[in-house]
Amino acid sequence: MTNIPISKSDPFTKKFNLEWESLAGNEFYEKVLNGTINMVSTKPDINRLFLTVNHLEGKDYLILRHPSKDYMLDAGDKFYILFEHNEVLEFDIEKKSFHLYNSLNDTYKQVYENRILLYKEDLDSLSQNLIKDWRILTSGNRKIEGMRSFGNGHNYEDKENLQIELKKLFVGYNKIVNGIENYKPLSKLDFKDNVSLTEICHLYLMKDLANGYYKIGISNNPEYREKTLQSEKPTIELKTSKEFSNRKIALAFESSLHKAYENKRLRGEWFELSEREIDEIKEILK
């Protein structure tokens, strides 16, 4: 077993926590990094990213660890994951990186951490698809991206095996947490006090001109979303969008459209639609 979990119940809160002693055969001398998948960016220069997923105090978190000498993240920064089929997960960094520990390795020096709350829909995508690339975009427009393993003493010394180990991490994680009594992951439809009900949100329809497939999704800024997708695939084009007074309503309409055209779903938010169905959606989004 190359992924070794550390699972325990907090005696005070009775909440189940899941972390990792080691992932993908990691044998780094700094044990706190053994429970992460270790990557470096390929552009604009070498920056390290240690990624994992933990269940803490009843919630699911994507964990990003990084040396302070490489970069620091702050509220308002973005983290993106690009899948092989070109679907993109977009995450907001909500808090400034916090100090995790002082490294004995001069290469790392101080290691910091960011936690990103994951929803059921995110976990489904991460466990069902291969990750093609990742990107960090800071508020200062610094762009860090790449998909390359580094070091040795693990099972992912090339990109293909790195992708496999990342998927195995999320598949294994889902299997463990779904065995927790009364486990119920947060859903994007369960927005309550943690999301502003006055936040304007758009429901959009985009087309991939290369294959004729359509994407039905939501975004606070569909034009910016179009540009982020175009950076990886220039053939993406925004066809139409409709503004809603808050994200919860936009999510409800998005879910309804996904269910209405479920038999036309290719993967995630991508659909193969007929001209009549496209006209139906455009009419709804007027």
Sequence-ordered SSE layout with sheet pairings:
Elements: E1 4-9, E2 16-22, H1 31-34, E3 37-40, E4 48-56, E5 59-67, E6 78-83, E7 88-92, E8 98-102, E9 110-117, H2 120-128, E10 131-137, E11 143-145, E12 148-149, H3 159-177, E13 201-208, E14 213-219, H4 222-232, E15 236-244, H5 247-260, E16 265-267, E17 270-271, H6 275-284
Antiparallel strand pairs: 1-2, 3-4, 3-12, 4-5, 5-9, 6-7, 6-10, 8-9, 10-11, 13-14, 13-15, 14-17, 16-17
Q: Any idea what the radius of gyration is?
A: 20 Å
What is the first-to-last residue Cα distance? Answer: 53 Å
Principal-axes shape call: globular
Tell me the helix content: 10-25%
User: Oligomeric status of the shown chains?
Assistant: single chain
Give the overall pLDDT as a whole number: 86
Low-pLDDT parts are: none
User: Helical element count?
Assistant: 6
Q: Work out the number of β strands.
A: 17
- How many separate structural domains? 2
**Main sheet makeup:** 6 strands, antiparallel
Strand content: 25-35%
Structure classification:
alpha+beta
Helix and strand succession? Answer: EEHEEEEEEEHEEEHEEHEHEEH
- Main sheet: strand order: 8-9-5-4-3-12
Your description of this structure?
- It is a single chain.
- This protein is 23% helix and 35% strand.
- By secondary structure, the protein is an alpha+beta fold.
- The protein is globular and about 60 Å long.
- The chain starts with a strand and ends with a helix.
- The model has no long low-confidence stretch (mean pLDDT 86).
Question: What would the keywords be for this entry?
Answer:
alpha+beta; 17 strands; five-stranded antiparallel β-sheet; 286 residues
